[in-house]
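Can you please make up a protein's amino acid sequence together with its fold in token form to help me picture the idea?
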Amino acid sequence: MSSSTTTFPRGARPGERRPGTARPEVTLAWGRIGRIALVIVLLVLASSYVRPLLDWVSANGQAAQQEQRLAELTATQKRLEARKRELLTARGMVAQAQELGMVKPGQRLYWVRGLPKD
């Protein structure tokens, strides 16, 4: 195609043609349109993977936090079970009762006040 300047007769508007003249040929750059369409399709496909990827990363972070919390709770459970076993013995019950201020029948209770704190 040549790049020539088109002149219009006086009084004619662009887009109007004179009777008997050929319509100008319109060509589309299909290669460029195809590349743009391909880029759009690839962007849509890539965007469909973003949300699942973010969910996966978030789930991994939550799993690590949950594992840490589980380890803490397991340690607490073991400590409490050891304390339970200790308190189920006769010696443990007596010690706990004394800590709570209980006395055996016939014992005398003394309150000592004013001692320095360690």
Q: What stands out?
A: The mean pLDDT is 84.
